[in-house]
Specification:
By secondary structure, the chain is mainly alpha-helical. It is 53% helix and 6% strand.
Length: 358
């Protein structure tokens, strides 16, 4: 299975295509042509744990299927995770298909607009190729994992992925806060940028296009810093052009001439550096990296930095706490003999030497 969405093109993102391969057959499901009820058979399939669903890099697919269909994928197997657990240096689908099956897949349509209808034959073939060889790849990778005694690791990671769901940020960032370099502006330049970013967000929503397709970030920053005094000057700015100036020029000139005062910046919370916490986290990371190197896998796959920090902050000293922070049994089994002695040495340190951050 695979999915295609329109996050690169639309403001209101949506599922545009679902690719299925089974029993030597390949099918494309068109969510844009089906009602929500019409997709119920697909949801039933996704949620049936007796049917294995093979994805490559399932995290985003699982979130989109949950967001748009309310579906929770069960029986999931992720070939990219399998490749990571095998220590493959390149885990993208194209690289794995070439290495394991000698199959060359096209890459030129990775940013294609899958909202187009009718969907061109080239895009249909490209989309189908994403799943055409996944079952064969999964079989090969499972066999390799079995030889290394890591199938259990893989299945546990896949069960974790089954629990992933779509969630919107509780407090979305203001439009200007998502623009790299915005924090360097002050005074009228910042006032302009905040107003320009709000304008772009409104227009993007009205047109249902990604905000950068209205005006790019670099252009907004330049306009905020330098302004523009006429339609001709505005149209001459890199990234604006005559069409945009003709359609929105009066609004933009009004914003640049008299931008409303931007809200004051929220004061940055004081940053307290806990050097003992950093030292202990670094000590755990060094042990993790040594074990990961012996296993031939990436250290962050074995124990993410956040998990190591949680071990330090929670003053963990036993296997139960280790499992709670690492979140996987396979990680716990691998790391317990190496990390528990180090954690015990932390617990034996004098009281007050380290305190969790407030």
């Amino acid at each position: 299975m695979d999915t295609e969405a329109d996050s690169f093109y639309a403001y209101f993102q949506k599922l545009c295509l679902v690719q299925l391969s089974f029993a030597g057959r390949h099918a494309l499901v068109d969510p844009l042509a089906l009602s929500r009820a019409g997709l119920d058979p697909l949801v039933e399939l996704l949620e049936d744990p007796s049917v294995t669903k093979v994805f490559h890099g399932a995290d985003y697919d699982v979130r989109v299927l949950h967001r748009d269909l309310g579906a929770r994928v069960r029986g999931l197997e992720d070939t990219q995770v399998a490749a990571q657990l095998l220590g493959e240096p390149r885990t993208g689908l194209a690289a794995m298909l070439l290495k394991e099956l000698g199959v060359v897949v096209a890459k030129e349509h990775q940013r294609a607009d899958f909202r187009r209808r009718p969907l061109p034959e080239t895009l249909r073939r490209y989309a189908a190729a994403d799943t055409a060889h996944l079952l064969a790849l999964a079989e090969i990778l499972r066999r390799r994992l079995s030889e290394m005694g890591r199938v259990g690791w893989w299945l546990e990671e896949c069960r974790f992925l089954e629990g992933v769901e779509w969630s919107s940020p509780s407090t979305p960032a203001a439009p200007h806060e998502r623009i790299p370099g915005a924090g360097k502006l002050a005074g009228v330049a910042r006032d302009r940028l905040v107003a320009l970013a709000q304008w772009r967000e409104r227009v993007a929503a009205e047109l249902d296009v990604a905000p950068f397709r209205v005006v790019r970030n670099e252009t907004l920053l330049q306009l905020a810093r330098e302004g523009a005094a006429s339609l001709a000057e505005l149209a001459g700015r890199a990234g604006v052009g005559k069409a945009l100036a003709r359609r929105f020029g009066k609004e933009l000139l009004a914003i640049l001439a008299t931008p409303p005062p931007a809200p004051p910046r929220a004061p940055a919370p004081p940053r307290r550096v806990d050097r003992e916490r950093e030292r202990r986290t670094a000590q755990l990371r060094a042990v993790r990296d040594q074990v990961a190197s012996q296993l031939g896998i990436d250290g962050s796959l074995l124990a993410p930095r956040a998990a190591l920090e949680a071990l330090v902050d929670g003053r963990v000293a036993d296997r139960e706490g280790l499992h709670r922070c690492l979140g996987r049994e396979w990680r716990t089994a691998v790391l317990a003999p190496h990390l528990l002695p180090v954690l015990a040495s932390f617990s034996a340190a004098p009281d007050g030497e380290h305190a969790p951050p407030s």
